[in-house]
Amino acid sequence: MASEHLNHPSSPLWQDPPIQAFIFDMDGVLIDSEPIYFEIEKSSFQHLGATVEETEHHTYVGVTLESMFQQVLDKHQLNHVLAEVLAFHKENVMKVMQGHEELQAFDHVEQWIQWLSNSGIKLAVASSSPRSLIELILERTGLRPFFTVMVSGEEVAHGKPAPDIFLHAAELLQVDPQHCVVIEDSRNGVQAAKDAGMRCIGHQNPGSGNQDLSKADIIIHSYAELLELRDSLHIGVRS
């Protein structure tokens, strides 16, 4: 399937300012982990006594666990203590992910990241997941050596769709937001990237549900599509 908006002459992705950094969301962008999380979250919702329909569940893609469970508790009028809910869920997530045998990056992800790295582009991961989970998944997929910066949604004041996480990643990379490109798979993530003043590639991943990525500068369906565009990118690495 062809990428959307790629040949549009006004697409800001192919214009100035030059690209100096790529910031990746993790779940649904580097690895197809969202379906795994959905099942774990369904189990936690049931444990809480909340009946969360699929449509509602998909609206939480890209937000922090704290935000998701607070919204669930409020919407379903449950009296659980948020800290206890988070502790229960995080322990369950780590247990499942540590024992999961099929934590693999998307096809062509490593090839794309390797090309960016060889081109002198700075790389970061900015995920709503807890840092312990980010580190686990990057290690298990073999991608950890590529990333000099990792930011968890737990480390900023406001999670996606607020821009905090991407602005903090850019600050750590020492790159101005206008020189950054974000790859995201969720509506919340795309909104955060655009509000951070960054260009955004939407990764349309079926595992992340029916996400509205229309605010992204372009929409891709595989990393093979990005690899075909390498010569079109305006790379401007600072000396």
From TrEMBL:
InterPro entries: B-phosphoglucomutase_hydrolase, Beta-PGM-like, HAD-like_sf, HAD-SF_hydro_IA, HAD_2, HAD_sf, PGP-like_dom2. It catalyses: beta-D-glucose 1-phosphate = beta-D-glucose 6-phosphate. The keyword Transmembrane helix does not apply. It holds the Pfam family HAD_2. It is an enzyme of class 5 (isomerase). CDD domains: HAD_BPGM-like. Its EC number is 5.4.2.6. Keywords: Carbohydrate metabolism, Hydrolase, Isomerase, Magnesium, Metal-binding, Phosphoprotein. One of its GO terms (molecular function) is beta-phosphoglucomutase activity. Its cofactor is Mg(2+). SUPFAM superfamilies: HAD-like. Belongs to the HAD-like hydrolase superfamily. CbbY/CbbZ/Gph/YieH family. This is Beta-phosphoglucomutase. It comes from Paenibacillus nuruki. The lineage of its organism: Bacteria, Bacillati, Bacillota, Bacilli, Bacillales. The gene is yfbT.
